[in-house]
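Team,

Forwarding the record for the chain on the shared tracking sheet. I've put the sequence and predicted structure together so nobody has to dig through attachments.
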Amino acid sequence: MQFIELFKEWFLNLGSKYNVNPYIFGAIYIGAIPFFFICLRWTIIRIKGGRSFFLPIMLTGFCFISAYLYLVIVGKHIPLWVYLFIGMMISYSVYSTVISIRKNIVQ
């Protein structure tokens, strides 16, 4: 149990160190997940139907980056490695989302 308490204390202290509320970050991160999948499904349906998928793909991307966007806008003194990590996460997300869309279009 001590490890969990130490982790919690460390995590919450990061918020004050970088001017980010960890509860807001977590709520955005977890809260955006269902909307990400809803928008992803909407994108696939629009593509299969041969209709414009600009809006659903933009909303899908926004749902994915919303928590990181909060971090970048509100955070202060964020280390460079965090920005690099966010960039890698977004790149991988784009890649895996494209794979997921292509797989679902073929079916």
